[in-house]
Protein backbone atom coordinates (compact mmCIF):
# COMPACT_ATOMS: atom_id res chain seq x y z
CA UNK A 1 0.00 0.00 0.00
CA UNK A 2 2.77 2.45 1.00
CA UNK A 3 4.81 1.71 -2.13
CA UNK A 4 1.73 2.37 -4.28
CA UNK A 5 1.24 5.71 -2.53
CA UNK A 6 4.89 6.64 -3.17
CA UNK A 7 4.49 5.83 -6.87
CA UNK A 8 1.28 7.90 -7.00
CA UNK A 9 3.05 10.88 -5.44
CA UNK A 10 5.84 10.57 -8.01
CA UNK A 11 3.46 10.99 -10.96
CA UNK A 12 3.31 14.84 -10.91
CA UNK A 13 7.11 14.95 -10.72
CA UNK A 14 7.46 12.62 -13.72
CA UNK A 15 4.92 14.66 -15.68
CA UNK A 16 6.82 17.87 -14.96
CA UNK A 17 10.11 16.18 -15.81
CA UNK A 18 8.74 15.11 -19.22
CA UNK A 19 7.40 18.60 -19.88
CA UNK A 20 3.76 17.51 -20.08
CA UNK A 21 1.38 20.42 -20.59
CA UNK A 22 -1.69 20.15 -18.38
CA UNK A 23 -5.16 21.49 -19.12
CA UNK A 24 -5.05 24.36 -16.62
CA UNK A 25 -1.72 25.60 -17.89
CA UNK A 26 -2.85 25.19 -21.49
CA UNK A 27 -5.96 27.25 -20.80
CA UNK A 28 -4.23 30.00 -18.82
CA UNK A 29 -0.73 30.30 -20.29
CA UNK A 30 -1.44 29.57 -23.94
CA UNK A 31 -5.08 29.66 -24.99
CA UNK A 32 -5.98 32.55 -22.69
CA UNK A 33 -2.78 34.47 -23.40
CA UNK A 34 -2.33 33.99 -27.12
CA UNK A 35 -5.87 33.53 -28.48
CA UNK A 36 -7.98 36.66 -28.86
CA UNK A 37 -11.52 35.54 -28.01
CA UNK A 38 -12.91 37.77 -30.75
CA UNK A 39 -11.28 35.42 -33.26
CA UNK A 40 -12.85 32.23 -31.89
CA UNK A 41 -15.85 32.35 -34.26
CA UNK A 42 -13.41 31.94 -37.17
CA UNK A 43 -12.60 28.42 -36.01
CA UNK A 44 -15.63 27.47 -33.89
CA UNK A 45 -17.84 27.68 -36.98
CA UNK A 46 -16.74 25.29 -39.72
CA UNK A 47 -18.42 27.38 -42.40
CA UNK A 48 -16.36 30.41 -41.44
CA UNK A 49 -13.23 28.28 -41.26
CA UNK A 50 -13.85 27.02 -44.78
CA UNK A 51 -14.28 30.56 -46.09
CA UNK A 52 -11.10 31.97 -44.53
CA UNK A 53 -9.08 28.91 -45.58
CA UNK A 54 -10.21 29.28 -49.18
CA UNK A 55 -9.40 33.01 -49.11
CA UNK A 56 -5.83 32.12 -48.21
CA UNK A 57 -5.56 29.61 -51.05
CA UNK A 58 -6.03 26.46 -48.98
CA UNK A 59 -8.04 23.55 -50.35
CA UNK A 60 -11.02 22.30 -48.33
CA UNK A 61 -13.56 19.49 -48.88
CA UNK A 62 -16.04 20.40 -51.61
CA UNK A 63 -19.28 21.87 -50.32
CA UNK A 64 -22.54 20.20 -51.40
CA UNK A 65 -24.89 22.39 -49.42
CA UNK A 66 -26.02 23.77 -46.07
CA UNK A 67 -29.22 22.97 -44.16
CA UNK A 68 -30.14 25.92 -41.97
CA UNK A 69 -33.54 25.12 -40.47
CA UNK A 70 -35.97 22.29 -39.80
CA UNK A 71 -38.06 23.13 -42.88
CA UNK A 72 -35.06 22.26 -45.07
CA UNK A 73 -34.23 18.88 -43.48
CA UNK A 74 -36.10 16.78 -46.05
CA UNK A 75 -34.17 18.49 -48.86
CA UNK A 76 -31.12 16.42 -47.97
CA UNK A 77 -32.13 13.52 -50.23
CA UNK A 78 -32.35 15.66 -53.37
CA UNK A 79 -29.24 17.56 -52.32
CA UNK A 80 -27.05 14.42 -52.29
CA UNK A 81 -28.80 12.56 -55.11
CA UNK A 82 -25.88 12.88 -57.54
CA UNK A 83 -23.11 12.45 -54.95
CA UNK A 84 -22.01 8.84 -54.34
CA UNK A 85 -20.79 9.64 -50.82
CA UNK A 86 -21.05 12.60 -48.48
CA UNK A 87 -20.46 13.85 -44.95
CA UNK A 88 -22.93 15.73 -42.73
CA UNK A 89 -21.40 17.74 -39.89
CA UNK A 90 -22.67 20.39 -37.48
CA UNK A 91 -20.99 23.73 -38.19
CA UNK A 92 -20.27 24.30 -34.50
CA UNK A 93 -19.63 20.70 -33.49
CA UNK A 94 -16.56 19.70 -31.49
CA UNK A 95 -14.62 16.54 -30.78
CA UNK A 96 -15.97 14.77 -33.85
CA UNK A 97 -19.49 14.77 -32.43
CA UNK A 98 -22.38 14.71 -34.87
CA UNK A 99 -20.36 13.79 -37.95
CA UNK A 100 -22.25 11.34 -40.18
CA UNK A 101 -20.24 9.73 -42.97
CA UNK A 102 -22.20 8.07 -45.79
CA UNK A 103 -20.11 6.13 -48.29
CA UNK A 104 -22.98 4.93 -50.50
CA UNK A 105 -26.73 5.41 -50.82
CA UNK A 106 -29.61 4.27 -52.97
CA UNK A 107 -33.26 5.17 -52.50
CA UNK A 108 -34.03 4.45 -48.85
CA UNK A 109 -30.67 2.92 -47.86
CA UNK A 110 -27.75 5.01 -46.61
CA UNK A 111 -24.58 3.09 -45.84
CA UNK A 112 -22.28 4.49 -43.14
CA UNK A 113 -18.50 4.10 -43.22
CA UNK A 114 -18.87 1.31 -40.65
CA UNK A 115 -21.13 -0.65 -43.03
CA UNK A 116 -24.27 0.00 -40.96
CA UNK A 117 -27.33 0.81 -43.10
CA UNK A 118 -29.69 3.57 -42.00
CA UNK A 119 -32.86 4.86 -43.65
CA UNK A 120 -34.06 8.28 -44.81
CA UNK A 121 -35.79 9.04 -41.54
CA UNK A 122 -32.61 8.33 -39.55
CA UNK A 123 -30.62 10.71 -41.75
CA UNK A 124 -33.28 13.39 -41.27
CA UNK A 125 -33.31 12.80 -37.51
CA UNK A 126 -29.54 13.20 -37.37
CA UNK A 127 -29.77 16.55 -39.17
CA UNK A 128 -32.61 17.70 -36.90
CA UNK A 129 -30.47 16.86 -33.87
CA UNK A 130 -27.62 18.86 -35.38
CA UNK A 131 -29.83 21.89 -35.97
CA UNK A 132 -31.13 21.75 -32.39
CA UNK A 133 -27.58 22.01 -31.05
CA UNK A 134 -27.24 18.46 -29.72
CA UNK A 135 -23.65 18.22 -30.98
CA UNK A 136 -22.65 21.88 -30.79
CA UNK A 137 -20.52 23.91 -28.41
CA UNK A 138 -22.77 25.16 -25.62
CA UNK A 139 -25.83 23.44 -27.12
CA UNK A 140 -26.54 26.41 -29.39
CA UNK A 141 -28.79 26.13 -32.44
CA UNK A 142 -26.67 25.18 -35.43
CA UNK A 143 -26.63 24.50 -39.15
CA UNK A 144 -25.66 21.27 -40.91
CA UNK A 145 -22.91 21.31 -43.51
CA UNK A 146 -23.00 18.70 -46.27
CA UNK A 147 -19.64 18.02 -47.94
CA UNK A 148 -18.24 15.70 -50.55
CA UNK A 149 -16.60 12.54 -49.24
CA UNK A 150 -12.82 12.78 -49.00
CA UNK A 151 -10.90 10.15 -50.95
CA UNK A 152 -7.88 9.58 -48.75
CA UNK A 153 -4.55 8.78 -50.35
CA UNK A 154 -4.03 5.06 -50.99
CA UNK A 155 -0.67 5.27 -49.22
CA UNK A 156 -2.71 5.09 -46.00
CA UNK A 157 -4.38 1.78 -46.88
CA UNK A 158 -4.31 -0.43 -43.80
CA UNK A 159 -3.49 2.38 -41.41
CA UNK A 160 -7.15 3.23 -40.97
CA UNK A 161 -10.38 1.26 -40.79
CA UNK A 162 -13.64 2.41 -42.42
CA UNK A 163 -12.74 6.06 -42.19
CA UNK A 164 -10.44 8.86 -43.28
CA UNK A 165 -7.20 9.36 -41.31
CA UNK A 166 -6.42 12.97 -40.44
CA UNK A 167 -3.31 14.83 -39.35
CA UNK A 168 -3.40 17.05 -36.25
CA UNK A 169 -0.59 19.60 -35.87
CA UNK A 170 -0.26 21.95 -32.91
CA UNK A 171 0.77 25.40 -34.15
CA UNK A 172 2.14 28.00 -31.74
CA UNK A 173 2.79 31.55 -32.94
CA UNK A 174 2.83 30.09 -36.44
CA UNK A 175 5.37 27.36 -35.62
CA UNK A 176 4.33 23.70 -36.02
CA UNK A 177 5.55 22.16 -32.75
CA UNK A 178 4.00 18.67 -32.54
CA UNK A 179 2.09 16.35 -34.88
CA UNK A 180 0.16 13.11 -34.99
CA UNK A 181 -2.04 11.13 -37.34
CA UNK A 182 -5.40 9.92 -36.06
CA UNK A 183 -6.44 6.61 -37.62
CA UNK A 184 -9.99 5.36 -37.32
CA UNK A 185 -10.86 1.92 -36.01
CA UNK A 186 -13.91 -0.31 -35.60
CA UNK A 187 -14.10 0.90 -31.99
CA UNK A 188 -14.23 4.55 -33.11
CA UNK A 189 -16.98 3.80 -35.68
CA UNK A 190 -14.77 4.96 -38.53
CA UNK A 191 -14.09 8.35 -36.90
CA UNK A 192 -10.64 9.80 -36.21
CA UNK A 193 -11.42 10.52 -32.56
CA UNK A 194 -8.94 9.27 -29.96
CA UNK A 195 -11.47 9.33 -27.11
CA UNK A 196 -13.75 7.02 -29.10
CA UNK A 197 -10.96 4.53 -29.81
CA UNK A 198 -9.07 5.82 -32.84
CA UNK A 199 -5.33 5.20 -32.96
CA UNK A 200 -3.01 8.15 -32.43
CA UNK A 201 0.34 7.91 -34.20
CA UNK A 202 2.98 10.42 -33.12
CA UNK A 203 4.87 11.88 -36.09
CA UNK A 204 8.41 13.18 -36.31
CA UNK A 205 8.23 16.88 -37.24
CA UNK A 206 11.18 16.66 -39.63
CA UNK A 207 10.10 13.62 -41.65
CA UNK A 208 6.45 12.74 -40.99
CA UNK A 209 7.54 9.26 -39.89
CA UNK A 210 5.79 7.39 -37.10
CA UNK A 211 7.60 7.49 -33.75
CA UNK A 212 4.96 6.07 -31.39
CA UNK A 213 1.37 4.79 -31.48
CA UNK A 214 -1.37 4.56 -28.86
CA UNK A 215 -4.99 3.48 -28.53
CA UNK A 216 -6.98 4.39 -25.42
CA UNK A 217 -3.72 5.97 -24.18
CA UNK A 218 -1.89 2.62 -24.24
CA UNK A 219 1.11 1.97 -26.52
CA UNK A 220 0.50 -0.34 -29.47
CA UNK A 221 2.55 -1.40 -32.49
CA UNK A 222 -0.11 -2.67 -34.90
CA UNK A 223 -3.49 -1.38 -36.01
CA UNK A 224 -6.12 -3.32 -34.02
CA UNK A 225 -8.29 -4.06 -37.09
CA UNK A 226 -5.88 -4.34 -40.02
CA UNK A 227 -2.80 -5.66 -38.17
CA UNK A 228 -0.54 -3.32 -40.16
CA UNK A 229 2.73 -2.28 -38.53
CA UNK A 230 2.05 1.33 -37.49
CA UNK A 231 5.76 2.15 -37.36
CA UNK A 232 5.99 1.82 -41.15
CA UNK A 233 3.79 4.91 -41.51
CA UNK A 234 5.42 7.86 -43.28
CA UNK A 235 3.18 10.73 -44.39
CA UNK A 236 3.91 11.88 -47.96
CA UNK A 237 3.93 15.56 -48.95
CA UNK A 238 4.87 16.22 -45.35
CA UNK A 239 6.52 19.59 -45.98
CA UNK A 240 3.38 20.84 -47.75
CA UNK A 241 1.21 19.77 -44.82
CA UNK A 242 3.48 21.54 -42.35
CA UNK A 243 3.44 24.76 -44.37
CA UNK A 244 -0.34 24.58 -44.64
CA UNK A 245 -0.61 24.13 -40.87
CA UNK A 246 1.86 26.94 -40.19
CA UNK A 247 -0.05 29.33 -42.46
CA UNK A 248 -3.17 28.88 -40.29
CA UNK A 249 -1.63 31.55 -38.06
CA UNK A 250 -1.89 34.08 -40.88
CA UNK A 251 -5.41 32.85 -41.64
CA UNK A 252 -6.79 33.31 -38.13
CA UNK A 253 -4.42 35.34 -35.98
CA UNK A 254 -4.74 32.68 -33.26
CA UNK A 255 -1.46 32.08 -31.45
CA UNK A 256 -2.22 28.59 -30.15
CA UNK A 257 -4.30 26.18 -32.20
CA UNK A 258 -4.73 22.71 -33.59
CA UNK A 259 -4.90 22.26 -37.36
CA UNK A 260 -6.69 19.19 -38.71
CA UNK A 261 -5.84 18.21 -42.27
CA UNK A 262 -6.22 15.31 -44.67
CA UNK A 263 -4.36 14.14 -47.73
CA UNK A 264 -6.82 13.63 -50.58
CA UNK A 265 -5.56 11.34 -53.34
CA UNK A 266 -6.61 13.80 -56.06
CA UNK A 267 -6.51 17.24 -54.42
CA UNK A 268 -3.59 16.78 -52.03
CA UNK A 269 -3.40 18.46 -48.61
CA UNK A 270 -6.73 19.86 -47.43
CA UNK A 271 -7.83 21.80 -44.34
CA UNK A 272 -10.58 20.03 -42.41
CA UNK A 273 -10.85 22.10 -39.24
CA UNK A 274 -8.99 24.59 -37.08
CA UNK A 275 -9.30 24.37 -33.31
CA UNK A 276 -8.69 27.12 -30.77
CA UNK A 277 -8.77 24.63 -27.87
CA UNK A 278 -6.91 21.56 -29.11
CA UNK A 279 -6.75 18.56 -26.79
CA UNK A 280 -3.61 17.34 -25.09
CA UNK A 281 -3.60 13.67 -26.15
CA UNK A 282 -1.08 14.50 -28.85
CA UNK A 283 1.54 14.37 -26.06
CA UNK A 284 0.62 10.78 -25.28
CA UNK A 285 0.83 9.82 -28.95
CA UNK A 286 4.31 11.38 -29.16
CA UNK A 287 5.55 10.23 -25.77
CA UNK A 288 6.73 13.80 -25.19
CA UNK A 289 5.50 16.99 -23.58
CA UNK A 290 4.55 20.20 -25.34
CA UNK A 291 5.92 22.57 -22.70
CA UNK A 292 9.62 22.50 -23.72
CA UNK A 293 8.74 23.22 -27.34
CA UNK A 294 6.28 25.98 -26.49
CA UNK A 295 8.73 27.63 -24.13
CA UNK A 296 11.44 27.49 -26.74
CA UNK A 297 9.26 29.35 -29.24
CA UNK A 298 8.41 31.88 -26.54
CA UNK A 299 12.12 32.43 -25.93
CA UNK A 300 12.82 33.43 -29.53
CA UNK A 301 13.59 37.10 -30.04
CA UNK A 302 11.03 38.98 -32.09
CA UNK A 303 12.66 39.69 -35.46
CA UNK A 304 12.15 42.87 -37.49
CA UNK A 305 10.53 40.70 -40.16
CA UNK A 306 8.45 37.81 -38.90
CA UNK A 307 9.46 34.50 -40.55
CA UNK A 308 7.30 33.15 -43.37
CA UNK A 309 5.40 29.85 -42.93
CA UNK A 310 8.15 28.08 -44.92
CA UNK A 311 10.86 29.56 -42.71
CA UNK A 312 9.00 28.61 -39.55
CA UNK A 313 8.57 25.05 -40.83
CA UNK A 314 12.26 24.75 -41.66
CA UNK A 315 13.17 25.96 -38.18
CA UNK A 316 10.90 23.44 -36.45
CA UNK A 317 12.07 20.58 -38.63
CA UNK A 318 15.61 21.24 -37.48
CA UNK A 319 14.79 22.04 -33.88
CA UNK A 320 12.07 19.59 -32.92
CA UNK A 321 12.98 16.47 -34.85
CA UNK A 322 13.12 13.35 -32.70
CA UNK A 323 15.88 12.09 -34.99
CA UNK A 324 18.20 12.99 -33.31
CA UNK A 325 16.98 14.27 -29.98
CA UNK A 326 17.46 17.97 -29.29
CA UNK A 327 17.76 19.84 -26.04
CA UNK A 328 15.27 22.66 -25.77
CA UNK A 329 16.01 25.99 -24.17
What would you say about this model in short?
By secondary structure, this protein is α+β, with helices and mostly antiparallel strands. It has helices at residues 2-17, 23-34, 40-44, 46-55, 76-79, 120-131, 238-246, 248-252, 282-286, 291-299, 309-319, and strands at residues 63-67, 86-90, 100-106, 109-112, 117-118, 144-148, 166-172, 175-183, 199-203, 210-215, 218-219, 256-264, 268-275. The strands form two sheets. Strands 11-10-9-8-7-12-13 form a seven-stranded antiparallel beta sheet.
Mean pLDDT: 90
Could you spell the SSE succession in H and E letters? HHHHEHEEEEHEEEEEEHHEEHHH
- Spatial strand arrangement across the major sheet: 11-10-9-8-7-12-13
CATH class identity of the largest domain: Alpha Beta
CATH architecture of the largest domain: 2-Layer Sandwich
Please give the share of residues in helix: 25-40%
State the fourth-level CATH superfamily of the largest domain: ATP-grasp fold, B domain
Number of helical regions: 11
- By secondary-structure content and strand pairing, the structural class works out as alpha+beta
Low-confidence runs of at least 5 consecutive residues: 1-13, 324-329
Distance between the termini: 39 Å
Q: Looking at the structure, what is the overall shape?
A: globular
Strand content: 15-25%
List the defining traits of the structure above.
single chain, 329 residues, alpha+beta, D-amino Acid Aminotransferase, Chain A, domain 1, Dna Ligase, domain 1, 2 domains, seven-stranded antiparallel sheet, six-stranded antiparallel sheet, 13 strands, globular, disordered N terminus, disordered C terminus
